[in-house]
Please model this.
Amino acid sequence: MSGGGTDTGGDEAVQVRQDEVAGKFEILVGDVVAGFADYHDEPGTGGAAGVRTFPHTVVDSEFGGRGLAGRMIGEALAATRRDGLRVNPECTFVAGYITKNPDSAELA
Model:
């Protein structure tokens, strides 16, 4: 696993981490996995950048309304940019995030 961001705002630490083996980003509240975004990578061909597809994003209902999904996807897209990949946003939440955040538009 590679690291992600940590925030100790409020009573509980919030952290996003990437599990490359499982192909997902997870957001943790304290020690609890509150949600995840699945992904799979495809290599580029002919000099084109590879593509990271995000098919599914989930945040447990008990953690809803805190903006955790947006935070997780923001960090997942930042990691995708660092990895030199483009994004295929199959997940409607990821597609909506990209639409609402123009700084991520070049990834799609």
